[in-house]
Specification:
- By secondary structure, the chain is an all-alpha fold.
- It has one domain: Up-down Bundle (Four Helix Bundle (Hemerythrin (Met), subunit A)), CATH 1.20.120.50.
- 20% of the residues are buried.
Length: 137
């Protein structure tokens, strides 16, 4: 059973962004499963997920910000600030993993759930109507 399931409640109504958010949920589920197993191979999986999460975060935020710039989203400055903060936090968790800190798993899951439940459901939903009205799919 997955730690977190995609539901339409998470949809921002823009399929390209929803697909990216589903990727994030996949990383969360893989990480949660590996953290729960806590065996020798789970450390490798956790490293893989964190490395991919760093790349995903950069790619996803670049994509959203490109849309903001292209279509003139008025709240882009504030949204970009939220992106910077989230990206720094992801990098910090990856650094903790690389330093051998084994006590970050619950903190990371809490952070990722906050990303889903606040950033996507509040911040991203705020731009969805505007971008949809511009024809973004």
């Amino acid at each position: 059973m997955a730690f977190y399931e995609w539901t339409e409640r998470l949809s921002v109504g823009i399929p390209s962004i929803d697909r990216q958010h589903k990727t994030l949920i996949g990383y969360i589920n893989t990480f949660a499963e590996a953290a729960q197993e806590n065996n020798g191979s789970s450390a490798v999986v956790i490293g893989f997920v964190l490395n991919n999460l760093v790349s995903y975060t950069k790619m996803h935020f670049i994509y959203e910000e490109m849309l903001f710039d292209r279509y003139g989203y008025q709240e882009e400055k504030e949204h970009k600030m939220h992106h910077r903060k989230l990206a720094v936090q992801v990098e910090e968790y990856y650094a903790r993993y690389k330093s051998g800190d084994s006590g970050f798993s619950e903190d990371l899951l809490s952070f990722l759930m906050g990303w889903l439940n606040y950033h996507i459901l509040v911040d991203d939903v705020a731009y969805s109507g505007f971008l949809s009205s511009q024809g973004v799919t």
